[in-house]
Amino acid sequence: MAVTRSLLDRARSAMPGGVSSPVRAFGGVRGEPPFVARGSGATITDVEGRTYVDLVCSWGPLILGHAHPAVVDAVLRAARDGLSFGATCAAEVELAEAVLARFPFCDKVRFVSTGTEAVMSAVRVARGFTGRSRILKFEGCYHGHSDALLVKGGSGLATFGTPSSAGVPKEFTALTDVLPLDDEAALRAYFAERGPELAVAVIEPLPANAGLLVQRREFLALLRELTSACGALLLFDEVISGLRVAPGGMSELTGVVPDLVTLGKIVGGGMPVGAYLAREEIMGQVAPLGPVYQAGTLSGNPVAMAAGLATLRELERPGVYARLDALGAVLQREFERVLAKHEVASTIERVGSILWISMQPGPAPRAYHAIDGRAANLYAELHPRLLAHGLWAAPSYYEVAFVSLAHEEAHLRQAAEALDRSLSELGR
Ligand SMILES: *Cc1c(COP(=O)(O)O)cnc(C)c1O
């Protein structure tokens, strides 16, 4: 562990918390974060030479697994021709067409470099298009770290959003309203009062950043109906679910069609890419065509575009989504067997290759306030043991697990074995 110890010391003295993104610091679990040396397929290996089955998959992008040959080849080929031009490249056009083919209700797409930028920009476009100021989000949904969206909000109906980060003036979030998920009555009351002022309702149609809070289709359909009725737009933030649960994400799975979609994670195949897309009249607002300004020095970067395109091409192979679902089902079955054996009150929530263990009695929660936070304590105890038994699980109870096409049943049985041994060690 000497290499890890020394890197950790240096990391912590050079970077806040030793990380470039907070959850990587393992603040929500016991133990210290390993440093990753490399990844291959379904596994990653740390600097001490220990190999783990990876169920984090870089928090979602790696739907093909680590270092997929087609993606790596595409990146190397693109890199040899130059890393960035600040001009449009052919791969960008191809990726735009490949994305739009999956979201038939959208006519145009703009590439950016992160999911944060995608949602921030899409909200700006929605405000520009409607000429309205107010936005609505839902408790427990994460949309990146732009000021206006860094709001969890209080409880109760239509409370003004209060910032959930220092450094965000409350005036900046005064136009952000927050509602609970899964609550039609709250939705109706809100729209009756504020609908005419609303520019856009933003939602993860499959909320996957606070556990996996699978919504009833009726709730999403009502949100669609109410936004349309008052002239507001509906934005599906599909940064996690898009390209993963189905080629066209949750709009394809549910048949509920939003006005705007944001993508990230998978669309860059492991490189930094985000995107927002919508129909012609909305995207016509974006500069240089319209008055809504949005730009990026590295947007549409040729190497990142090549990685995204190679990933989408692999996802066009027949049977790919059925395979992801089948692998997810294997992991669910294996985990359920282990959790039952140890009599852990729990429910597994899963949509295709996204899975979350709700470690509380009764049905899995559908709203943030229904998550029993005490389960995070058990998870905090469990996590270092999972790592020790070779399972790279998310270092937070609230984060989901991802299965990739590189996972085989043997990897998933290994993951369940790690859970089994860890629970035994805890005397559960
Ligand atoms: C990850 C995520 C984002 C932010 O994307 P970044 O690339 O981390 O900026 C936004 N929305 C959702 C739903 C996400 O899961």
Structural class: alpha/beta
Named at the architecture level, the CATH assignment of the largest domain is 3-Layer(aba) Sandwich
Q: Enumerate the spans where pLDDT stays under 50 for 5 or more consecutive residues.
A: 154-159
Looking at CATH, the homologous superfamily of the largest domain is: Type I PLP-dependent aspartate aminotransferase-like (Major domain)
DSSP strand count: 15
Bound molecules: pyridoxal-5'-phosphate
Helix content range: 25-40%
Q: Outline the biggest β-sheet.
A: 8 strands, mixed
Distance between the termini: 29 Å
Overall CATH class of the largest domain? Alpha Beta
Oligomeric state of shown chains: single chain
Mean pLDDT level: 96
Order of helix and strand elements from N to C terminus: HEEEHHEHEEEHEHEHEEHHHEEHEEH
Strand content: 5-15%
* Rg for CA atoms: 21 Å
Net shape: globular
According to CATH, the fold-level topology of the largest domain is: Aspartate Aminotransferase, domain 2
Number of discrete domains? 2
Strand sequence of the main sheet, in spatial order? 4-11-10-9-8-5-7-6
Structure description:
- The protein is built from twelve helices and 15 strands.
- It is α/β, with parallel strands linked by helices and 428 residues long.
- It has two domains: 2-67 and 318-425, Aspartate Aminotransferase, domain 1 (Alpha-Beta Complex); 69-315, Type I PLP-dependent aspartate aminotransferase-like (Major domain) (Aspartate Aminotransferase, domain 2).
- A hairpin with a 2-residue loop joins strand 12 and strand 13 (354-358).
- Helix 5 (184-194) runs parallel beside helix 6 (217-230).
- The longest helix is centred in the last third of the chain and has 22 residues, at 320-341.
- The chain is globular.
- Residues 154-159 have low confidence and may be disordered.
- Bound molecules: pyridoxal-5'-phosphate (PLP).
